[in-house]
Write a structure and sequence with these properties.
By secondary structure, this protein is α/β, with parallel strands linked by helices. It is built from seven helices and seven strands. Helices cover 40% and strands 17% of the residues. Bound molecules: NADP nicotinamide-adenine-dinucleotide phosphate (NAP). This is SDR family oxidoreductase. InterPro entries: NAD(P)-bd_dom_sf, Sc_DH/Rdtase_CS, SDR_DHRS6-like, SDR_fam.
Length: 250
């Protein structure tokens, strides 16, 4: 299938995990992809893997200077975006008593302020028929100890799906989100846990997943591309759970 022939996507956090998998599939279906990441090393490594239809920008989702430069950087490559996938980020976890201001500001800057202003910046490049897709998380559906700031940040993003859908409907821009469950990515590498602690954490979470396995990044990419495609032409303001049912099964 070539659903995205000559279309352009901007994927924040496209150097790894779900963003990289989505970039790979978008290109496989005929599109061009601009990915962002925090360092030239990770961005270059990813664009080397993705090949000639990929372009990389060093842009930190939590950095105001970078956010204000984003449209200019993108316009050096294209004047139109068909898909913006707001995906960049990671979690950090702390009990309420231990979470300090830096923890709060780091997560809210990257996960809430980042996608908000990235959309604001990129809006002039989005035409009728374009799609905005946010990456939230199943964690918004439940109370998990130590997740207060991360879950609140993702809940704010859920709210953007609805308000942006309301505001952008007159421009013909569809706004939706995906809510992943436990997906096999590098997400734990930013948590401060060491390799053994990460392995233990993953081993412990597997029994809690209805399918008894983590999702593959490609399974998220399929959902993102569906929402971005013409097959989803009547889907707007929705959040698609791609989580093996973990948000609703107890
Ligand atoms: N994995 C899960 O189980 C899970 C579940 C629900 C939701 N999520 C969400 O899914 C999204 C993608 O994460 P992932 O699981 O695919 O993890 P990942 O493999 O670690 O990928 C994260 C991506 O985000 C980029 N990134 C991180 N911080 C950034 C920043 N400040 N500015 C720009 N780019 C940044 C990373 O690039 P660089 O390292 O190159 O900067 C990388 O490309 C995140 O929003 C995460 O919260 C993950």
């Amino acid at each position: 299938m070539q659903r995205f022939q000559n279309k352009w996507a901007l994927i924040t956090g496209g150097t790894n995990g779900m963003g990289l998998a989505t970039a790979r599939q978008f290109i496989a279906e005929g599109g061009h992809v601009i990915i962002t990441g925090r360092s030239i090393e990770t961005v270059t490594k990813a664009t080397e893997q993705l090949g000639e239809s990929s372009y990389g920008l060093v842009s930190n989702a939590g950095n105001w200077q970078d956010l204000t430069q984003l449209r200019k950087q993108v316009q050096e490559l294209t004047n139109t975006l068909d898909l913006v996938f707001l995906n960049a980020g990671y979690g950090r976890f702390a009990a309420v008593e231990n979470a300090d201001e830096a923890h709060f500001d780091e997560l809210f800057s990257m996960l809430v302020k980042g996608p908000f202003f990235a959309v604001q910046q990129l809006l002039p490049l989005l035409k009728p028929g374009s799609s905005i897709i946010f990456n939230t998380s199943f964690v918004t559906e439940v109370g998990i100890p130590n997740f207060s700031v991360y879950s609140a940040a993702k809940s704010a993003v859920q709210s953007f799906i609805k308000t942006f859908a309301a505001e952008l409907v007159t421009k013909g821009i569809r706004v939706n989100g995906i809510s992943p469950g436990h997906i096999k990515t590098n997400i734990y590498s930013n948590t401060g846990l060491n390799t053994q602690q990460i392995e233990e954490a993953v081993t412990n979470l597997i029994p809690t997943i209805p399918f008894k396995r983590q999702g593959e990044p490609e399974e998220i990419a399929e959902a993102v591309l569906f929402l971005a495609s013409d097959a989803a032409s009547y889907i707007h303001g929705a959040e698609l759970k791609v989580d093996a049912g973990i948000a609703v099964i107890r």
